[in-house]
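Quarterly update from the structural biology core.
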Amino acid sequence: MLYSARTDIGMVRHSNQDMYSTLKIADDLVFFLVCDGMGGANGGEEASRLACEVATASIERDLEVVLRDKELDTDKYIPKILAFAAREANLAVFDKAEETPSLSGMGTTFIGAVVYGNTLYAANVGDSRLYIVKDGDAKQITRDHSYVQYLVDIGVMTSSQAETSSKRNIITRAIGTDETVEPDTYTVTLEPGSYILLCSDGLSTMVDRAGLARIVCGEGSVDEKASALVLEANNNGGRDNITVILAYSGDAE
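Predicted structure, tokenized:
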């Protein structure tokens, strides 16, 4: 699997509160994570950094079982370890905020993914997203934990209206803001030739799905496409920090 990651401060912010992690356990077993911090510059940076460190260590420890036990039911096991890693990160961020008054209220989004062979497992908290991009289409896999998504769910707002709403950055679930958190998990079989895109909302609010698909399905290497996504977000205003992990699952048959 080929993959590339980028993070950028954007055109408006004075600090970068995004953080990402990539971890290769084996040739066919990799982990990706994007966290978008909140709670002031110091709080946001600390929350995303701590969440990344704790979750990545948790995943590295628990994924070793996959390599040792070939009879393991990975469809049951991997979503559970992703959810557990999110909960460990949540408790670490929450405890840090409790013991440090200047960090009170800090938190972060969380979108983590494990790719094992041709299967993608993911867990999310907040509004950082995961897309599968193939054949000119960017399909959002994760569901935002946001106020506008709630309005869409109850029929008050359409998906198109949600994408441009001034309230789209209000999230309803985050890592570290409460003592407990429940991530959503997803399992997707990857078709050959698929791209996996994890990103903070600094990309998804600046580049629509058509724009994501155009860049990812266009010409260039994975590295070049990851850079082009960041550039496009900045060209469109760059109103937030931008973090991208782009992975390619292999040649189409």
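The chain has a mean pLDDT of 94.
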